[in-house]
Automatic annotation (TrEMBL):
Organism, scientific name: Streptomyces lunaelactis
Listed name of the protein: Lipoprotein
Region (Disordered): 171-205
Pfam families: Lipoprotein_15
Domain of life: Bacteria
GO biological process entries: alkane catabolic process
Alphabetical UniProt keywords: Signal
Signal peptide positions (record): 1-24
Amino acid sequence: MNTWRNASLAVTAAAVLALTTACGQDKGNETPNGQAVGAANPAAPGNGGYGSDYGSGTANQAAAKPAGQLAVWDSKELGKVVTDSAGFTLYRFDKDTASPPKSNCEGECAKAWPVVSAGGASAAPGTDASLIGEVTRTDGTKQLTIGGWPMYRFAKDAKPGDAKGQGVGGTWFAAAPDGKKAQGGAGGDDDGGEEAGGQPADLAGLSVRKDPKLGEIVVDKNGMTVYRFKKDSAWPMKTACTGDCLKKWPVVAPVDKNDTEGILKKGFVTFDRPDGIKQQTIDCWPIYTFSGDAKPGDTNGQGVGGTWFAVSPTSKLVGAPK
């Protein structure tokens, strides 16, 4: 009996040691003192354009409007953007698929993001007409696709040239002539210049972007800046952002370790939060995005409340006071 018990204790000890090594205690002065779970000074409620306000637009889902003769708008901020014949920006949704084409925007979603009908649509002059196609939606209607991606308008775009849907929820982006995400132009006076413009169409689940002000910071698959909360803890792994705080600071969902570029792999584990949400960590620190960041390159969450900071590739707080 004692032999079995000793063996069991040895296995338990080995498991604890392995976790300690992965999420170890070699954080130095950066390791917090075990903040309890709970919304410590939680951020105020609000989606900040995070995309949860489906149906807030004025459009209805009665009938998808035809696009007519497509055109290309050369935006200083977004680069080349596809518009319908009336000059309204067309968008694509990251939760859709292009191969095979499939729309995952139904019901209330389609009220905020009206579907573009495939009927009567023709390619913009000088673009590849073979990229124009259609997909049959669940209600039997035909939706325009470009490069396989279903096309939408945004209900809050009030006039030609508006692009208020750009970056909403980190999943909605203006469409380029080939159906990929529109990419920002070079130069300009915008903060971050070329670096802060549109990100490459296909990023790893987590990768590194060189910000002109902050240096190397982690971004998610949509190019959105990733943040850490100073009131969280890596060992033991705990979160101080719950409830309404998560509306403003959504967690980064689990990412496959092989779907990263330039990110520290040590302590790259999934955090099973007490609220049942699974969250990605870097070096065992829980990571988040910010609902106030409207587009790739934004760093509006940097320094908020003196507790939220962008994350370096090795999980350090970028720009935080020593």
